[in-house]
Amino acid sequence: MVLPSGSRFAAQLRFWVNGEDVVEEAVGEGGRGPYAADVLPAGRPSLLRATGEARHLQLGEPGCTGGCCGFLTVVVQRSGEIVQWSDWEVPSKRHIPVPCPPPELHFEAGRYDAEVARAEADSWWQPHP
Predict the structure, then answer these.
(1) pTM of the model
(2) What is the DSSP letter of 96?
(3) H or E segment at 27?
(4) Dihedrals φ, ψ of 6, to 5°?
(5) Which residues contact 5 (CB under 8 A, 6 or more apart)?
(6) What is the mean pLDDT of residues 51-74?
(7) Phi and psi at residue 97, in whole multiples of 5°?
């Protein structure tokens, strides 16, 4: 078997808010964040950018995959100088109690925009030949 050159695994994003890993807290150990290439596409604006139009984003899934138990999703929307993450949906597993969704989060829009721009400009995750 021949493996392609470069990294064997696609880079995944994790979302840390106030020192907490939002994905792990909501989907449990073994869960994963979205692929960086999906959320931070090269040469295009990130899906994390907040606008006045509410948008559902998938931020994670359990180890058994989102097709099995569902995805961690959030609604992202800008309202004036505030970016809001709300209306969380968490994966549910039949054999484990349903986890509590994360709380509604509010971010100062200027700082949020700066962090998204920093992530868009950082190409650490892009495959290199």
Answers:
(1) 0.80
(2) B
(3) helix 22-27
(4) 90, -165
(5) 129
(6) 84
(7) -55, 145
